[in-house]
Amino acid sequence: MSEQQAGRLIVECLVAQGVEHAFGVPGESYLAVLEGFHAHRERIRFIVNRQEGGAAFMAEAQGKLTGRPGICFVTRGPGATNASIGVHNAFQDSTPMILFVGDVGSDFRDREAFQEVDYGSFFGPSTKGFAKRVERIDDADRIPEYIARAFATAMNGRPGPVVLVLPEDMLRTMTAARPLARVEAVEPWSDPGALRTLRQLLMQAKRPFVIAGGGGWTPQAAQALQRFAENWRLPVGNAFRYQDTFDNHHPLYAGDVGIAINPKLAARVKAADLVIAIGPRLGEMTTSGYTLLEAPRPKQVLVHIHASAEELNRVYQADLAINAGMSAAARSLEVLSAPPELPWEDWTAAAHADYLANLVPQPLPGLPADAPRGAVDMAAVVALLQKHLPADAAITNGAGNFASWVHRFFRYHGLAKGHKTQLAPTSGAMGYGVPAGIACNLTTGRVAFTIAGDGDFLMNGQELATAAQHGGKSIIVLLDNGMFGTIRMHQERDYPAHVSGTALRNPDFCALARAYGYAAERVTATDQFEAALLRALAADTGTLIEIPFDPEVITTRVTLSAITQAAQAKA
């Protein structure tokens, strides 16, 4: 059997796992892998990024889109630490991902060599890090074993990130090893006895509520969830930044259970006598700071279904905990027989009516009812997005109050229609939306729409150069209000009218986008936006649409002046 360099074998193993795209920033520590990408360039595409954080976000987005690990390559030390933001995001978002780190040679190890880092201590689960597994490959003959295990670990149970460390000298050694077969996820199935108990709890309920979300969903699982909800006429809310889990157009949809939750929805979750959480880990954002469901023992009867046994009963003591993957859980639930009449149909209808009412913009506190919402009405902008974007378009965002406009007003068709359409960080990472949108367009060809703030955009705006280089494009709406809006909002609450560290002096965003190779234009009135959007959809390149935004209108529900007045009154 002929031998080859270990670096080339690593790329062959990725091809055997079905990987078609990998993201990264080159480094001298893994030149042998880059040689492997060159040798297999007809089968796998290496997307060269401009910064490791952007590369890791792109890989994480790819993991969300495919359900299989997104792949990222970085060099040692600074490369790995820059990429750590994407690894943390994959961990909190339960996204399968593998980060490959080119490392110092074995003969230099443990001497604090140039850019050396102890990756087990930095990333590892044993130190309360944020990777499911961190391993170093010292033997080239075992590369197929390590890569197959990384794929299995990233996908099985609660999906998440794995880090594989590649010593530079190992990558240059010769090996006759060959790739292992493609690894598929192994799903835990629902216990039949638990399903019978769940049915009994449903039969006893008067005000049930379903919260769906988390990682591991497929279109088939989302469709089975929809059939379960229809059989039992259950109101369904989607967990924080998993708004595409259940079709927002469905008459059973009750809204998103996350940041800036509809107050009526929050009250409904609290008033429920049975909460069935299918998939989410029930973190701080989905539970409104652990208040919708009180920890550790909720007032509601709680059924928690999750792919990881370690997650069940970790924060909340559930009345019924079911360890099952999302496909297995949804397929079990959809055949759970329901009686012909149910006592909560009015409750379900009212939940959907509350959601529809929340789609209607209301006057903001501190402004008169007829006051304009700045020169550009963002609720109207989102309505135009709904009108013109294809149903399979991906909506991406990073972190900031600007995201509240799509979170509240955009209605996701979602996974049940065949595609994942929301790419957003539950970790609250700024800078995610731009690279995520580019990754989606590069790997799927679908329309990718990104909403960004001025502070958020400048975290990873350099990845527009990546899009231009590799023939990708996205549509970016950038809201420029000259500040870190979310932090300013909290600042106004705690230190009213004292501005410190939150004001921004910004570049000419349109000129910057054009320099990267994007088209760009500035929209200063609502009636200008539709034409700009249609031009962007028809363009051969990506487009940035900058909207100067009134800093007073901080979110869809509140103004800065209202926050300040409330804080001063409290003081």
Explain what you see.
This protein is an alpha/beta fold and 571 residues long. It folds into 3 domains: 4-175, Rossmann fold; 192-358, Rossmann fold (3-Layer(aba) Sandwich), CATH 3.40.50.1220; 378-570, Rossmann fold. The chain contains 21 helices and 20 strands. α1 packs across α2, α1 packs parallel to α6 and α15 packs parallel to α17 (463-470). The longest helix is centred in the N-terminal third of the chain and has 15 residues, at 52-66. The model has no long low-confidence stretch (mean pLDDT 94).
Short description:
By secondary structure, the protein is an alpha/beta fold.
Topology of helices and strands:
Blueprint: E1 4-5, H1 6-16, E2 21-24, H2 31-39, E3 45-48, H3 52-66, E4 70-74, H4 78-92, E5 97-103, H5 119-123, E6 133-136, H6 143-155, E7 161-167, H7 168-172, E8 174-175, H8 192-204, E9 208-212, H9 219-232, E10 236-239, E11 253-257, H10 263-271, E12 274-278, E13 301-306, E14 320-323, H11 326-333, H12 345-358, H13 378-388, E15 394-397, H14 404-409, E16 422-423, H15 433-444, E17 448-453, H16 454-460, H17 463-470, E18 475-480, H18 485-494, H19 509-516, E19 519-522, H20 529-538, E20 543-548, H21 560-570
Parallel strand pairs: 2-3, 2-4, 4-5, 5-7, 6-7, 9-10, 9-12, 10-11, 12-13, 13-14, 15-16, 15-17, 17-18, 18-20, 19-20
Antiparallel strand pairs: 1-8
Helix pairs in contact: 1-2, 1-6, 3-4, 3-15, 9-11, 13-20, 15-17, 18-21
